[in-house]
Amino acid sequence: MSGGELFLLVAGWVMIIEGLLPLMNPKVWQQAAEAASKLPPEVVRRFGAGVLATGLFFVWLVLW
């Protein structure tokens, strides 16, 4: 599998997972998005950094 194919595979899975909540329970998704929009940018940035670090760790576990 080439790097480009792997990227598309991973991006596809992320989209599938991200689409599940709004598909299954749009009200909860809307409430979560509204609550997130009220958070200070620094909190959102820290959350994003935590998610990114966790994802990198999972990739590291699988590939190395």
Q: How is the topology of this model organized?
A:
Layout: H1 3-24, H2 26-37, H3 41-63
Please tell me about this protein's structure.
The chain is mainly α. It has one domain (about 5-64). It is about 90% helix and about 0% strand. The chain has 3 helices and no strands. It has helices spanning about 5-25, 25-35, 40-64. It is flat, with a radius of gyration of 15 Å. It comes from Sutterella parvirubra YIT 11816. Keywords: Membrane, Transmembrane, Transmembrane helix. It holds the Pfam family DUF2065. This is DUF2065 domain-containing protein.
Q: Termini separation (Å)?
A: 16 Å
Shape: flat
> Overall pLDDT, averaged?
93
Overall structural class, as computed from helix and strand content, comes to mainly alpha
Number of E-state strands: 0
Helix percent band: over 70%
Low-confidence stretches: none
Q: How much is the radius of gyration in Å?
A: 15 Å
Order of helices and strands: HHH
Q: What is the strand content?
A: under 5%
Biggest beta sheet attributes: none
What is the overall number of helices?
3
Structural domain count: 1
Provide the descriptors you would attach to this structure in a database record.
3 helices, single chain, mainly alpha, 64 residues
Write a short abstract of this structure.
This protein is 89% helix and 0% strand. By secondary structure, it is mostly helical.
